[in-house]
Write a structure and sequence with these properties.
281 residues, alpha+beta, four-stranded antiparallel beta sheet, 7 helices, 21% helix, PSD-B, PSD_type1_pro, PS_Dcarbxylase, lyase
C-alpha cells in the first residue's frame, strides 16, 4: 500500500515546480541554511564526509556545492589497462547486459526501448548497457569510462519522476520519460554514450564543457554537435565529464565489441573508476 501511495504521488506532484523550489534552497549561500542542510544530509543519508577533498562544511558555498564535492586524490584508483571499461559513477549497478531486440531491462519484468531512451531510431550499434543509480549519499560526479572524443550532446526534455527501486518496478519507461542528457563519444571500440538521467529534486545536470544543461525550459530536443574541426574535446578514462546536483542515474551504452561484464548479478554496489567490463581480444 505504501508503494502504491508513493507511485500515485509521483503522478500528481508538480515535478518541475518542486524541483525548482528545491534548487533555490540548494543554491542558497546563506551560511546557516546551507550548513543546516549539509549537516542534515550527512546525518540522514550517512554520507562519509571523510572521503571528501574538503571535509570542513563551512568551506562549501552552498548545499549544491557540497553535493558535487570532489574526492580525495587517489581514493578511487583506476586501471591503466586499455581493455578495461570503468564505472562512470559511484552507486548501485541496478541493471546491465545485452540490448535485446532494441530493448533494455529497467527492472525485473520491465523493459524500455533504446529508441525511446535516446530519441533516435538511426543509431543501431549499441548492444550493451549498464545502469547505475546514484543515491543521495553517493559521490555525484560522473567520469569517462573509456578514452574518447566528444562528438555530440543531446538534451531530451521530459518528466522528473523519482528514480529508485520502487519507481523502476512500477513506472513504465521510467528512464525514457525523465529529462535526460545523452553524450556521445568516439572511442577505439566504436560509439559509446553516457546518459545523465534527471529525477525529482535533482537541482541540475552540468558538464565540464558546457556548464549547466538542465534544468532548463526547452520544450524540444536540443542538439549540440562537436564532431568538426572547431572542436576537439577529448577525455581520458577517469576524467570528469560532469555532475548531478543531488542524485539520479547514469546509463552507459556500448557497441558490440566482445564486451563482457565483470559482474554476475544486478544491484551490486559499484564505485567510480572500478572495473565494469572487459574488452576481449
Amino acid at each position: 500500500m505504501k508503494d502504491k501511495i508513493f507511485i500515485f504521488l509521483q503522478y500528481i506532484i508538480p515535478h518541475s515546480l518542486t524541483s525548482r523550489l528545491v534548487s533555490k534552497l540548494a543554491e542558497s549561500k546563506n551560511k546557516h541554511l546551507k550548513n543546516y542542510l549539509i549537516n542534515l544530509a550527512i546525518k540522514k543519508f550517512k554520507i562519509d564526509i571523510s572521503e571528501a577533498k574538503e571535509t570542513d562544511i563551512n568551506k562549501y558555498t552552498s548545499f549544491n556545492n557540497f553535493f558535487i564535492r570532489e574526492l580525495k586524490d587517489g581514493l578511487r584508483p583506476i586501471s591503466s589497462d586499455k581493455k578495461i571499461i570503468s564505472s562512470p559513477a559511484d552507486g548501485v549497478l541496478s541493471e546491465f547486459g545485452d540490448i535485446t531486440n532494441g530493448s533494455l531491462v529497467q527492472a525485473k519484468g520491465k523493459t524500455f526501448t533504446l529508441k525511446a531512451l535516446i530519441a533516435d531510431s538511426s543509431t543501431t550499434d549499441f548492444t550493451k548497457f549498464a545502469t547505475i543509480y546514484l543515491s543521495p549519499k553517493d559521490y555525484h560526479r560522473v567520469h569517462m569510462p573509456i578514452d574518447g572524443k566528444l562528438t555530440k550532446m543531446v538534451y531530451i526534455p521530459g518528466k522528473l519522476f523519482s528514480v529508485n527501486k520502487v519507481t523502476a518496478q512500477n513506472v513504465d519507461d521510467l528512464f525514457a520519460k525523465n529529462e535526460r542528457l545523452v553524450c556521445y563519444f568516439k572511442t577505439e571500440i566504436g560509439e559509446v554514450a553516457v546518459i545523465f538521467v534527471g529525477a525529482l529534486l535533482v537541482a541540475g545536470i552540468e558538464t565540464v564543457w558546457h556548464g549547466k544543461v538542465a534544468p532548463n525550459y526547452y520544450k524540444d530536443i536540443q542538439i549540440w554537435n562537436y564532431d568538426n574541426d572547431s572542436f576537439n574535446i577529448e577525455f581520458k578514462k577517469g576524467d570528469t565529464l560532469g555532475w548531478f546536483n543531488f542524485g539520479s542515474t547514469v546509463i552507459i551504452l556500448m557497441p558490440n565489441n566482445n564486451i563482457s561484464f565483470k559482474y554476475n548479478q544486478s544491484n551490486a554496489n559499484i564505485s567510480v573508476n572500478q572495473d565494469l567490463a572487459l574488452i576481449a581480444e
